[in-house]
User: Fold this.
Amino acid sequence: MPAADVEVLYTQLRRRMMESGEWDHIQSILTAKLNESGWLDEVKDGSKEKARVMEPLSFQQLFEETTSKIASEIPLSIKREIMSHIRQYIIGQTA
Assistant:
């Protein structure tokens, strides 16, 4: 599937999820799971430590360094659970 088609599908899916409230529901589940696992604290602590030693302090650089690696550090079990919620939503919409 061409990248443009994927982008269109993603945009449509996200819009529908936002309109139905499912986007906020899944986002709250994700936040709770990441908090329970300690992932959020790890990201905060790591960012604070980087900021302490960064000379000169640059929010843009700190943001880029942090966001470039955090998605890969999300626990696999949480990724799977969120993907399951998204799949269930899609199946419910196509049934």
The radius of gyration is 17 Å. The chain has five helices and no strands.
